[in-house]
Amino acid sequence: MRATVSLLLLAVISCAVAVRYEANWPSIDSRPLPAWYDEAKLGIFIHWGVFSVPSYSPDSLAEWFWWWWQGAKLKPYSDFMARDYKPNFTYADFAPSLTAEFYDPNEWADIFQHSGAEYVVFTSKHHEGYTNWPSNYSYSWNSVAVGPHRDMVGELATAIKTRTTLRFGLYHSLFEWFHPLYLKDKAGNFSTTTFVDTKTTPEMYEIINTYKPEVLWSDGDWEAPSTYWKSVDFLAWLYNDSPVKDTIVTNDRWGIDANCHHGGFLTCMDRYQPGVLQKRKWENAMTIDGKSWGYRRNANLKDYLSIHTLIATFVETVSTGGNMLMNVGPTKEGVINPLYEERLRQFGDWMGVNSEGIKGTRPWTTQNDTLTPNVWYTMKMSAVYAVVLDYPKGPLLSLDAPMTQAGATVEMLGYPGTFTWTARPGKGIDITIPAIPADKLPCQWAWIFKFSGLAN
């Protein structure tokens, strides 16, 4: 009998190992999302490239500088170039000034570790085509050939993997604004795939095999269908045969037909925040500078989101089933400026107190409270957590979602002891808030109440 059971177990294991994903969307979409990603909740996005040299935008995306200047030909950018740069200056002339002389990947890794995040996603190549690694397919337009003369991707990958507990990921743009092979394919209504075959796909194989990222964040897909990008063929290899096939997660930006429908987790659009529970795992990719992903020298203080706004965005995201990918834009010298660092460290201080109610949680039956605004819920096993964004002004915190029963307890994460409570007529709970001195509160923003033994 034991031998029979053992054979059956081996057969089940063999079947599980033998599962292979086919190069079509139904098969690709059937792959379970690796559990680590859903447990993590918070990632750090890093946009860095040649666009970090001009680092200018009046009120929009600084990383799109080349396009605004020479694609859309917007006057503020033309005026900026005419005022500050010599005639006939080209975008490529910016590259030597991407000096990165203060780029210390170990320092970056330490800052990211403190933030409370559990993964980072670094720009390997943006739409400008410049690669932050010595790609065999970018010739002289990469970070070793011109600019820092360093493998920016490789150095950060090593620092993250050796100094932190974070997972390392890479952003990669499928298209390039002005690459002649892409423009030729585009002119032919994408009936040819020369750019994909000789540039995009080889680059993706290269970064996966070389750096073994556990997130591949695709972008630049919106002008062509996934058939042009040959997305399902690449993803089938990624999930079946790549060195990170069991742990890598991908997003949905694999073609104009794939966005918000196919792939791994859904991003749908930048700063995606649906506000209600979604059927599939999703991610809110957003920025600390509310206007730009790349660093802007001309940004004002009011452009940067406050720590309260960042935490509020985060808890709404987690409560409705998403992860948040919070972006910083380093300077051309390789500095994460003090304002970005302050936000990350503040976030880490908050997570140090409240991670129990965030990491590893799942959406509850109710996402936000309807009696008291700005309260969002999560759950973990039998515990329910209420994230209260505005500290109660009086002696009671009244909530309508929790259904009480005898033996239920209420506590505040980071604060000793339990709070007294009474059931509200019909449903809900009134929690008595003791007079806690400000210096005795466990954190300065967004307090999490933990409920044990609720009826729901």
From TrEMBL:
Group of enzyme by EC? hydrolase
Claim: Ribonucleoprotein is one of the keywords in the record:
no
List the signal peptide residues.
1-18
Does this UniProt record's set of keywords contain tRNA processing? Answer: no
Which residue intervals define the domain Alpha-L-fucosidase C-terminal in the entry?
367-451
UniProt-listed Enzyme Commission number(s): 3.2.1.51
Quote the Pfam families the UniProt record gives.
Answer: Alpha_L_fucos, Fucosidase_C
Q: Which cellular components does GO assign to this protein? A: lysosome
Matching InterPro entries: FUC_metazoa-typ, Fucosidase_C, GH, Glyco_hydro_29, Glyco_hydro_29_N, Glyco_hydro_b
Gene Ontology process terms (BP): fucose metabolic process; glycoside catabolic process
Name the coiled-coil region(s). Answer: none
**Which residue numbers delimit the Glycoside hydrolase family 29 N-terminal domain?**
18-356
GO MF terms here are: alpha-L-fucosidase activity
Q: Which UniProt keywords apply?
A: Glycoprotein, Glycosidase, Hydrolase, Signal
Which function does this protein serve? Alpha-L-fucosidase is responsible for hydrolyzing the alpha-1,6-linked fucose joined to the reducing-end N-acetylglucosamine of the carbohydrate moieties of glycoproteins.
Q: Which family does it belong to?
A: Belongs to the glycosyl hydrolase 29 family.
Protein's name according to its UniProt entry: alpha-L-fucosidase
* Species in which this protein is naturally found: Patella caerulea (Rayed Mediterranean limpet)
